[in-house]
């Protein structure tokens, strides 16, 4: 049956959580202390996560969760971020290509920041590969939505190239950079290709 939009303190839940039908998830996925921490930490300009009645918004559920997760990148917040990202992934099947593009970007940022944890590094690499697999479709969608703008940077290509270069996988770093450049994503691809090429030449 749901929680009828109320917390244990009988404070009505409103805002984006209710607008996107996330109230039950909000109440079951997090403890009272986690919810308080999320609400005190997530302070975007004009944000209304659990307060105020929202009648319409250009935001999407996946977009909201991606933005929310980015506020919890510290190692001590990893559990909260993962719960948010898991819900976003659950909803991503019905999301737009750009929503998924930015969701993977967030997954990469959060996990790579905690890359000392091997599981987080693997999650970052996996998200890079998934984001890259969407790249041609994402580029088309971006150009359709912003016809006068050049393509922005691509976190998936950039982060994977960095990881490969750090691992000494220079051929792979070059291949990733060449692919990104061929699709016209913004970035210092030529410099990275040249640098990795020189490293390959060293004995």
Describe the structure.
- The protein is mostly helical and 203 residues long.
- It is 63% helix and 0% strand.
- The radius of gyration is 19 Å and the shape is globular.
- The termini are far apart.
- Mean pLDDT is 92; it is low at 1-9.
Quick one: biggest sheet? Answer: none
Strand percent estimate: under 5%
End-to-end C-alpha gap? 67 Å
What oligomeric state do the depicted chains represent?
Answer: single chain
Unreliable residue stretches:
1-9
User: How many H/I helical runs?
Assistant: 11
Count of beta strands: 0
Order of helices and strands: HHHHHHHHHHH
Spatial shape: globular
Structural class: mainly alpha
Radius of gyration: 19 Å
Jot down its keywords.
203 residues; globular; 63% helix
Task: Give the arrangement of secondary structure elements.
Blueprint: H1 15-19, H2 23-29, H3 32-41, H4 61-69, H5 78-91, H6 97-113, H7 118-133, H8 135-145, H9 155-166, H10 170-182, H11 189-201
Helix pairs in contact: 4-5, 4-6, 5-6, 6-7, 7-9, 9-10, 10-11
């Amino acid at each position: 049956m749901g929680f009828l939009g109320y917390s244990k303190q009988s404070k009505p839940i409103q805002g984006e959580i209710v607008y996107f039908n996330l109230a039950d998830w909000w109440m079951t996925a997090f403890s009272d202390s986690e919810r308080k921490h999320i609400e005190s930490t997530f302070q975007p300009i004009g944000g209304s996560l659990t307060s105020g009645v929202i009648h319409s918004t250009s935001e999407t559920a996946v977009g909201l969760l991606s933005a929310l997760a980015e506020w919890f990148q510290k190692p001590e917040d990893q559990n909260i971020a993962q719960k948010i990202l898991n819900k976003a992934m659950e909803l991503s099947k019905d999301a737009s290509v750009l929503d998924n593009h930015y969701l993977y970007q967030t997954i990469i940022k959060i996990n790579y920041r905690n890359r000392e944890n091997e599981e987080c590094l693997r999650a970052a690499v996996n998200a890079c590969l998934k984001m890259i697999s969407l790249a041609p479709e994402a580029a088309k969608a971006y150009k359709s939505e912003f016809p006068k703008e050049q393509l922005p940077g691509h976190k998936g290509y950039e982060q994977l190239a960095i990881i490969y270069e750090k691992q000494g996988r220079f051929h792979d770093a070059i291949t990733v950079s060449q692919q990104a450049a061929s699709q016209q994503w913004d970035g210092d691809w030529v410099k990275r290709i040249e640098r990795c090429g020189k490293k390959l030449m060293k004995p």
